[in-house]
Amino acid sequence: MDALEILFTASFWVAVIRIASPLIFATMGELICERAGVLNLGIEGIMTAGAFAGWFTVYSGGDLWAGLLVAALFGAMFGLLHATLTVPLGLSQHVVGIGVTLLATSLTYFVYRLALPEVTSPPKIEPFQPLPVPGLSSIPVVGEALFTQTPLTYLAFISVAAVAWILYRTPIGLAVRAAGENPSAVEAQGISVTGIRMGAVVVGSALMALGGAFLTTSAFNSFFFQMINGRGWICIALVVFGSWRPGKALIGAVLFAAFDAYQVRLQQISGGIVPYQVFLMMPYALSILALILVARRAAYPKALMIPYQKGER
Amino acid sequence: MSSKPALRLSRISKRFGPLRANDAISFDLEQSEVIALLGENGAGKTTLMNILFGHYVADEGTVEAFGKPLPPGDPRAAIDAGIGMVHQHFTLADNMTVLENIALGTQSLWRPRLDRTAARRRIEQLSADFGLSVDPAATISSLSVGERQRVEILKALYREARILILDEPTAVLTPVETEALFRTLKLLVAKGLSIIFISHKLHEVMAVSDRVLVLRSGQLVGERETRSTDRKELAALMVGREVKPTTVSPLRLGGPLLALEQVSATPYNGAGLDEVSLTLTAGEITGLAGVAGNGQTVLAALIAGILRPTSGSISIAGQEVVDWSPRAALAHGVARIPEDRHAIGSIGDMSVTENVIAERYRSPRFSRMGFLNWKAAGRFAEKLIADYDVKCPSPEARIRLLSGGNMQKLILGRALDADPAVILASQPTRGLDVGAVAYVHHMLLSARDRGAAILLISEDLEEVLALSDRIFVMFKGRLSTPSARGERSIRELGELMAGHNGERDDHAA
After folding, report:
1. What is the CATH architecture of A5-129+137-297?
2. Which residues of chain A does B105 touch, with a Cβ-Cβ cutoff of 8 Å?
């Protein structure tokens, strides 16, 4: 198989969509937060917590869907912590975000060790199984790639449509976008900026946690340390890449996933001439390049990272 | 007049620490009436309006709208009672459309769908009724300032406002846009709305209001029917003493001090300069009028050395300067009074002393072998504080704690102390009260009389007309032909500012 042929195989595209799914959840989560004016750098830690919470619920005998619910709840909880510190208290979003990431990550590892002190290899669960969509899944390549996935992947794509609909078609979405553009315009209409921003961060963080849970309940079947491995940071870049628009961010996530899936396959056919680290680096290098090309003129939310205090101008 | 007033304020008081921002203020606004609320900065106008609109809660006193008491501290209740406010700094989201800005908060947040069609229809209806034409689908950032204000007014009308409060609405408008606004206000009043017009510009107050209320230091110090008062009386009420008009001594021209020749420059964003030639002459104030964003800021940055020209030359006293930079500008005696005293003119969290030596800390007077001479710096700060009558707790105080007027006096002192040859004054009186404005004007005129060349860049046409010996108008990065003192009227300058330079420009060129 040569390097170009890979691009036309269904298995490659199935992998792309699978790799993209957690990124899509978390990118949508981050996008909601940023659209409301809050940069949520807690994403990496919240994904870790979500991955563990989802997996542990199932491991302890819970249903897979119950696992997702618990993951989302934990995400929302860390979101609430982040929001309380950054919105009403107006603390630095950078510092709080990094703090939440460190806290959520270490707390997760700590609880993992407490709950499973003896294990050496990560215990496994029965994860989500692929659910082919009748009819659509038999379309060659495209159908196979998109419609032989797990239910959670379908949910990821639905979340993009839902976020886009809410942001652009509903009154509350309008308020969220306005809170990220000019919070005093929101306050002047008698809507609470604090309420809108906190709500956005809580909901966004729940989505991030679902992204984490995807890894342990759908892509893999166990939880291990360092499994988020920078995916959260990638999602922050994807939001910028997508110019804060759900549709474009989705394209970004799929593109990054394609780079990632491609480099794995290139490693296999390169025959060891090129060091494998070069391939590992590829998606990140290409992402930076794409960011330079696409996002330079992005209209970022005007009030992003600016705390809002009522009555101040 | 109908029996019930549109709005009744009874003994409103508000304290911020020791400061009495509002002290037992009472007045009625009748239906279909325009009240002008006149007062200097810090007189308490904005505080009063913020109480009215529910942004602040008053310590004492009540507000009634159409006979019903208004719950304090609730903007929603104020909107529901029919009060609409057009803030001085627009509360619009730039990256969103007109429709989105207007519809924000008018439909229940939990509706599954924003009804854009109904919103658009209503906006178009209101636009037609009140002559406020604006495209609902346009993004705010693509609109002119005048259009943005129209959106703000439409926003209030969309919420069925019966009382409209306008906070310094003309501060950002061209004369032409101001006239259009006044026509709109007349129309609104004719349709039964009541208006509170907040301003410190006397001629506008005289032009637009039925009744004038004057605030000073938080107290209502006067109430006049507009037709039975005049500007002089209002100015005296506002300031608390007689205000002497600025007197200008005859012009004594010297030689050219700073000359720009065919200079073009491109800033990071906005309009650049397009082959501008300008000579500043000793003993003369050259005024530069224009609507914000037409290149005045770029010209100021260029003369200050912050920006380098892409073509053309700059010469000082006949000598071309090749290596133009802020330090070169200072070394050649160009003193700067920056447009934004907070953002560029000062470093808020550093002390008065540190700020006043910021342009000259390298001189042997303030440093030796790389060590600052704090004693000399402190003496200099104390001298400026005394000479320029700055009210400030001590030279060690952080400069951000000073009022706008006192901060500007310090910046003026820093710029003028060394008797500079060229003075670049950008918006030198923006946001200052009448007393401080008179002081700044006096200082600029005395610098002119001792032979400095001054470039006055201002959006306040009255100021440009009062001070300038020669006036240029800037439009889209180009200068108009100059006019001598008294040659062009406000109207004619306004036309030039709007870019209508018809026959006049042709035979003058």
Report:
1. Orthogonal Bundle (1.10)
2. 171, 175, 186, 189-191
